Amino acid sequence: MAATEEGPQAAGIRLARIVAEVFAPAVLVCAVTVAIALASSPDLPAGLLWALVSAGFCSGIPIWFLARGARAGRWDTHHVRDREDRILPLTVAVGSVLLGLVILVFGGAPGALVSLVTTMLVCLTAATVVTKWWKISMHAAIAAGTVAITALTFGLWWWLATSVVTLVGWSRVVTGDHTPAQAIGGAVLGTALGGGLYAVLL
C-alpha cells in the first residue's frame, strides 16, 4: 500500500513524490535518447529527426498509454502501483520500442543510438518478465541504466550521478511503492544488463 501524507513524515513523502516525477522513467528515457541522438548524428537536422523518432517510440508512446489508462481508471496512476496491472503497459512499451528500433535500423540511424534502443528493448523485456512474479522498480532500473549508458557515452565522470540512482530508490521506498529489495533489484538490472549490454554493442 502506498504511503499517506499524514504525520511527521509528510514532508519526506512529498519530496519523494517530487523526485519520482522529476526522474520518472519517461523523463530519463527521453533525455538519454535525445542526448545520444544529437551527439551521434552527423548534423543537427539529422540529430533532431532521430531524437524525435527514438524519444517518441521509447518514451512518448509508452507514457501516453500509461496516462490514458490512468485517466480511464484502468490503473491508479501513471506509475501503476499494482504489479499485475503493469504487465499490459510494459508489453505495449516493448512493442513501441521494438517498432522504433526497426525504424532506426532501416532508416540508417547512428550506431550509438541503435545500440541504445536495442539495450532499452532487452532491458524492458527482461523487466517485463520479472514483473510477472516480482514488482521490480522500473524507476531504479532506468535511472541506473541511464547513468551507466551516459557514462559510457560521454565520459566516466558521469558515474558521479550514481547518487541520483540512490535518491530515486529512496523515493520509491518512502512512497511505499517498492521495498528496498525491489529498488536495489532495479538498480542492479539497469547497471548490469543495461550498462553491460550497451558497452558490448557500442
Task: Summarize this structure as a short list of keywords or feature phrases.
202 residues; mainly alpha; 8 helices; 75% helix; globular; disordered N terminus
Word description of this protein:
The longest helix is centred in the first third of the chain and has 28 residues, at 44-71. The protein has one domain. Helix 1 crosses helix 7 (162-174), helix 4 packs antiparallel against helix 5 and helix 5 (111-131) runs antiparallel to helix 8. The chain has helices at residues 10-22, 25-40, 44-71, 87-107, 111-131, 138-154, 162-174, 180-201. It is mainly alpha-helical and 202 residues long. It is 75% helix and 0% strand. The chain is globular, with a radius of gyration of 17 Å. The protein has eight helices and no strands.
**Distance between the ends:** 41 Å
- Mean of residue pLDDT values: 94
Low-confidence segments, ≥5 residues, pLDDT <50? Answer: 1-5
- Return the string of H and E elements: HHHHHHHH
Largest sheet: none
Structural class estimated from helices and strands: mainly alpha
Radius of gyration: 17 Å
Assess the beta-strand content as a share of residues.
under 5%
Q: How many β strands by DSSP?
A: 0
The percentage helix is over 70%
Number of domains: 1
What is the general shape?
globular
Number of helices, counting only DSSP H or I runs of 4 residues or more:
8
